[in-house]
Design brief:
The chain is α/β, with parallel strands linked by helices and 229 residues long. The protein folds into two domains: 132 residues, Nucleotidyltransferase, domain 5 (2-Layer Sandwich), CATH 3.30.420.40; 90 residues, Nucleotidyltransferase, domain 5 (2-Layer Sandwich), CATH 3.30.420. It contains seven helices and ten strands. A five-stranded mixed β-sheet has the order 3-2-1-4-5, sandwiched between helices. The chain has a five-stranded mixed β-sheet with strand order 8-7-6-9-10. Strand 6 and strand 7 form a beta hairpin. The longest helix is centred in the middle third of the chain and has 18 residues. It starts with a strand and ends with a helix.
Length: 229
């Protein structure tokens, strides 16, 4: 099975092509750039580099969120369009679950998170069991001040993985069993997204597949607030 993986859900933009369990190629950037301009050229270049045509693909895996509204729309729209026009399977994978894979073999809990502003984070909780990463708490939007006591009550070491760690490191350091990942561990890998995409069922209807935002866009929230007044 040949899988194209696409992740533009956050600051990192990554694409990968995996054939069965072999990573044929992977492109990634971790800088503030315009994903809408760079994503399709990156896909085209990678496909050319690995010697495959779009028709050779069997499945497309996309990071479905949570994350940046704009980034999610770009990645999911691209994946849906390719899956529909090429008549290929489409699989959505949690953006946090992709990061959690970098905590493989950690003896404790794995806590990937993305900063969501206003004291909030998109967070999930995972653990390594029976040779794979399994979900303990599903992805959610939570205030950091509320999340910290929950983590402290777990009684086990917690590995924090996040590209936004610098912003929250001082708060997280207050936890008695906090562990911080190293540089590369904070970066979602498109090749891991592809691997997860191979293990999950494809979506039944490409047209109705939507990103996992976990919250309303600011404009939508303001509109609803005005309607309630």
């Amino acid at each position: 099975m040949n899988i194209l993986a696409i992740d533009s859900s956050n600051l990192v933009m990554g694409v990968a092509v995996v054939s069965e369990s072999r990573v044929l190629g992977e492109l990634m950037t971790n800088v503030k750039k315009n994903h809408s301009v760079r994503l399709m050229p990156a896909i085209a270049q990678l496909m050319k580099d690995v010697g495959l045509t779009p028709g050779d693909l069997d499945r497309i895996a996309v990071a479905k969120g949570p994350g940046s509204y704009t980034g999610l729309r770009i990645g999911v729209s691209t994946a849906k369009t390719m899956a529909w026009t090429l008549r290929k399977e489409l699989v959505g994978v949690s953006s946090l679950e992709v990061v959690a894979q970098n905590g493989r073999y950690f003896d404790g809990y794995i806590a990937p998170f993305f900063d969501a502003r206003r004291g909030q984070v998109f967070s999930g909780l995972y653990t390594y069991r029976d040779g794979k990463i399994v979900t303990v708490t599903h992805d959610r939007l939570v205030l950091m001040k509320n999340w910290l006591p929950e983590l402290a009550s777990l009684g086990k070491p917690v590995l924090f993985l996040s590209n936004d760690l610098a912003k929250w490191r001082e708060d997280l350091s207050a936890l008695p069993k906090a562990v911080f990942g190293g540089g590369p561990q904070h970066i979602p890998r498109a090749s891991e997204l592809a691997r997860l995409g191979r293990e999950k069922d494809p979506v039944p209807d490409v047209h109705h597949f939507l990103p996992t935002y976990l919250r309303l866009a600011e404009a939508e929230a303001k509109w609803l607030a005005r309607q309630e007044q």
